[in-house]
Amino acid sequence: MQSFKQFSNLQESDTQKAYDMEHVIVSAAGGEPFISQRIPNSEKIGEKIISDLKLTGTGKFPKNTYPASKKWNQYFPGGAKGTTLTPKTDFLIGEKRISLKTGDGAQLMSGESKEATATFFTAVEKSGMKNDKMVMELGKHMKNLLPATDLRKLGIKGSKRDLQKTGKFIEVEILKRADDAHHAFKNDLRKVFDSNPSFAEAFTFEAMTGKEKFANSTGTAEYFLVTDWEGNAQLHNAFTDKGYVKKIAKQVNPDVRFKSNQIVSSAAKSKSNPKGGTGYYKFYSAIGLGLKMIVEEEVKYSNMLNEGIIDNIKNFVHRVIERAKKWYKNFIQQMKKIVGDSWQKLLEYMDIEPQVSFNNNINW
Fold it and tell me: Using an 8 Å Cβ cutoff, are 59 and 92 in contact?
C-alpha cells in the first residue's frame, strides 16, 4: 500500500507530465518548439496525436486567466478570483479550444465548494428545472403549522397577562412546526436533485467546459483530447457529443444536500449595503413577524373590550387561529412573487444553501 507521500509524489509527477504533454502537442502543431524530458520520444508522440486526430491550425496557449461572466459570478460568494479564473481550455489548435485529459490526475474541476455552488445554480437553470413545484410542496407542509393543542386546558382566565402568555404559546408552537416544515422542505429538495439525469448532465457539462462561467470565450473548453503517454488519443466535442457528456455524468454522480445558513447576495452588495442584504424578509422572519402582529393586535383588541371579564380563552384563540389561516393562505402567493423563477432566491428565502459533492476522478 502506498504512503500518502508516495501517492502525492505520483500525483505531482503525473501533473508535470500532463503539463509537458500540452507543450508537446502545441509544439507538434507548429507552436513553440518543445521536447519533454519526462515523455520518451515526445516529438513523435506529438506528431502522432496531431496526425491521428487530423488537427489543423497552429498550436498556442490561452491566457492564464479569463474573467467570469456576470451571470455566473453572481452565484459565486464574494466573486470569483485567483486560480478560480484559470481557463478550462488548456491549449488551442487553430480554432479548437481543447482541454487535455491524460494520466491519473485529470480531474473534472476544482474541488472548491464555491465553484461547485456556482456550477450548481448554473446547472439548475440550464436543466430547465422549475421551482414552482417546490414552492407548492412547501405550502403543503405549512398546512400543519397551526397547533392542535386545546389551549383552554392551560387554565387561562383572560387577563392581559394571560392573553399575552397564550399568544406567546401559539407563537412558539407555530415556529416549532415551521422548523419541521423547513426540514421537510430540505428533504423534498434533495429528492428533486437525487438521481436527476438532466441536472447531473447540466452540472457535468458546465464543470467540464465552463461555457457559462467564461461566456463561451477562449476560456471555455469545447473539445476534450484524451490520450495515454504513447499518444493513443481520442477527441470529443462536448458541445455536440451528448453521449460523451452522459457517459461522464454517470461517473460524476453529483450529490446535493442542503444546510441551513444565513445567506446574503453578492449581487446586492454596495456602499450603502456592505453585507449584501436582499431587502426582503426570509422564511422564519416572515412567519414570526406575521404571527406576532396578529397576536399583538388580538391581545390589544381583547383587552380594550373585555379586560378582566373573559372567563376563558376560547374566543381569543379562535380569532388568532382564523386570522393566521388567512395570513398563511396569502403567504405562498407572496413568496412566489419574491422568489420568482430564481432557485437562488428560493434557497436564500429559505435560509439554506446547497452542499454539492461529486466524483472528481473521472475515467475520461
Answer: yes
Which stretches within the chain are classed as H helix? 4-28, 42-52, 70-73, 113-126, 132-142, 160-193, 197-209, 242-252, 283-306, 314-339, 343-349
One-character DSSP codes across 125-163: HHTT--SHHHHHHHHHHHTT-S--S-GGGG-----HHHH
pTM of the predicted model, to two decimals?
0.83
pLDDT tens for 294-352 read: 888 877 777 666 655 555 567 777 777 788 878 887 888 888 888 998 999 999 889 89
Provide the residue range defining the domain that includes 89. 4-126+196-254
The torsion of the CA quartet 27, 84, 125, 108, rounded to 10 degrees, works out to: 50
Answer whether residue 160 is part of any domain: yes
Cell matching residue 208: 467540464
The number of C-alpha atoms within 13 Å of 268 and in the hemisphere containing its C-beta is 13
Q: Say if 229 falls within a structural domain.
A: yes
**Is the domain of 179 the same as that of 327?**
yes
CA-nearest of 184, 173, 189, 334 to 256 is 189
The number of folded domains in the chain is: 2
Q: Which residues contact 301 (CB under 8 A, 6 or more apart)?
A: 319
Cell numbers that stand for 343 in this block: 432557485
C-alpha distances out from residue 358 to 14, 63, 142, 204, 207, Å? 22, 28, 32, 10, 11
User: From the CB of residue 51, how many other CB atoms can be counted at a distance below 10 Å?
Assistant: 11
Do 240 and 350 belong together in one domain?
A: no
In a domain, 362, yes or no: no
| Cα–Cα dist 341/14, whole Å | 44
CB 117 within 8 A of CB 76: yes
Whole-angstrom Cα distance, residue 145 to residue 141?
Answer: 8
Q: Which residues, at least 6 apart from 179, have a Cβ–Cβ distance to it below 8 Å?
A: none
